[in-house]
Specification:
Strand order of the largest sheet: 1-42-40-37-34-31-28-25-22-19-8-6-5
Largest sheet: 13 strands, parallel
Number of helices: 2
Number of strands: 42
Distance between the termini: 23 Å
Length: 460
């Protein structure tokens, strides 16, 4: 590896002012965005992007409230909202969908088993905005979850009751058929180390559940599930059984989406799956406890440009990558932005990263920009960009990545790190291929490198 010596602190070529100033894209970078990257203070970056400018044009508003009695209305009257998110999606064309949520971000409104129709809808561009009321449209917060309501009309999960089995005096049971095996059981009253609901540990008997608060057992042969909460309380809406093989957010149309203040919880393979879209914007959203990726674009559509804007989003505790993009279509162009995002605690059976963008053979330009934010405690890497794509990272913090590296440059990819801080990682920077290059400016802080590629100095 051709590599600079580790940079432990600011050096003479760090630009110190005047502040703020616009930072131009690195020479050779394949995307000139319509917004500017600005350095406000040394190592503190933002963008000039106005998120509201990314909203697609909409023709009418629809309203959704989990407390509504049913989905019989059109949802066009705020006094007669629909009950379920899926019922509002794709009903009309180019809708602005207001979702009734809680004014308290720590206690969001729960929409259970609610995104099942996104596989074919929306067929038109849509905005989804969570509000606390339909009059002032003040900010609100909501969760769309693959959890199954206890005693719900679907009959998937029965009503909870203390088990009569003598081995479990603190254990609650409910019917749950094998066809609805849980992807996870989570408890939102207790947050884990990265701020997501705590996942209960799977056990193999009632006795083991009894002996270990914060655990569950799905007896598929007997058609029951047994749980003991961390605090041994009776199961409530904070203790949720996430359904396996259930899609959460999923879009497969050439549309533009804008989603604000909605958390995607659970999901088969992804908490949100972008199989195809023209543009997708997520603002103040979260993606957690998917059976694999948190938010992923995974598209085989050829000859299109697919743009993703993730703004102040979090990908936490997914059993795969937190944020990710893979496009296999010939001549497909991918433009990917993460601005002040966090990816943490994502870990499953594979090599799982906080954020990862992949270029495939035959793609057009595949580029990513990450501004600010933090990436930490993921299974393998904080950020991993591979396949010959280009990435530009400004002002991000990448730390406590014990698996492989903080920043991983795969194959013949090229990266530019400006004002990035990498600390406490297995290797701070890895370039696994002799054709790969990571360019670092003088204000990027790192200590260790690995791999056959090049780490080179550049001046922004």
């Amino acid at each position: 590896m051709a590599v600079l010596g580790p940079i432990a602190g600011p050096t003479a070529n760090v630009r110190r002012g005047p502040f703020p100033h616009v930072v131009s894209p690195p020479s050779g970078f394949g995307w000139t965005p319509a917004f500017n990257i600005l350095e406000l203070l040394p190592g503190v970056f933002t963008t000039s992007l106005d998120p509201s400018s990314l909203k697609p044009s909409t023709a009418q508003a629809r309203y959704v409230d989990a407390a509504a009695p049913n989905n019989a209305s059109t949802g066009l009257d705020p006094a007669l909202p629909k009950q379920a998110l899926w019922s509002a999606i794709g009903v009309g064309g180019n809708d602005l969908i207001y979702i009734k949520g809680s004014a308290d971000p720590t206690n969001p409104t729960l929409y259970e088993d609610n995104m099942k129709n996104w596989s074919s809808n929306p067929v038109q561009s849509c905005c989804f905005i969570v509000v606390s009321n339909f009059t002032t449209l003040a900010p609100g917060y909501a969760i769309t979850s693959t959890s199954m309501p206890a005693g719900g009309a679907s009959g998937r999960l029965g009503t909870w009751a203390l088990t009569a089995d003598a081995a479990g005096p603190h254990v609650y049971e409910a019917t749950l058929l094998a066809a609805h095996a849980p992807n996870a059981v989570i408890d939102a009253t207790v947050l884990n180390a990265v701020g997501a609901p705590t996942a209960l540990t799977a056990r193999a008997s009632i006795a083991l559940v009894e002996a270990n608060p914060g655990s569950y057992w799905h007896d598929s042969a007997g058609g029951k599930i047994y749980v003991r909460a961390v605090d041994s309380r009776a199961p409530d809406t904070k203790l949720r059984v996430l359904r396996d093989q259930q899609t959460n957010g999923w879009v497969n149309s050439n549309v533009s989406l804008y989603v604000e203040r909605l958390t995607f919880e659970g999901g088969n393979q992804r908490a949100f799956y972008g199989q195809r879209y023209a543009a997708a914007t997520f603002v103040d959203c979260a993606f957690w406890h998917s059976s694999r990726q948190g938010m992923e674009l995974n598209s085989s559509t050829a000859g299109v440009t697919q743009s993703t804007y993730l703004i102040r989003c979090r990908a936490l505790s997914n059993a795969g990558d937190g944020f990710g993009a893979t496009a296999s279509g010939a001549a497909t162009v991918v433009q990917w932005l993460e601005w002040d995002c966090e990816a943490a605690g994502n870990s499953g059976a594979s090599s799982d990263e906080g954020s990862s963008v992949h270029k495939s053979a035959g793609n057009g330009a595949v580029t990513s920009i990450r501004v600010g934010g933090s990436y930490h405690g993921n299974k393998t890497d904080g950020i991993a960009d591979v396949g010959g794509m280009q990435s530009w990272v400004a002002g991000s913090r990448i730390y406590s990545e014990a698996g492989t590296s903080g920043f991983y440059c795969g194959d013949t990819s090229t990266a530019w790190l400006h004002g990035v801080t990498l600390t406490g990682n297995a290797a701070d920077i890895t370039t696994d291929n002799a054709g790969g290059t990571v360019n670092v400016d003088g204000s990027t802080i790192y200590a260790t490198t690995a791999g056959a590629g090049t780490v080179a100095r550049y001046t922004p």
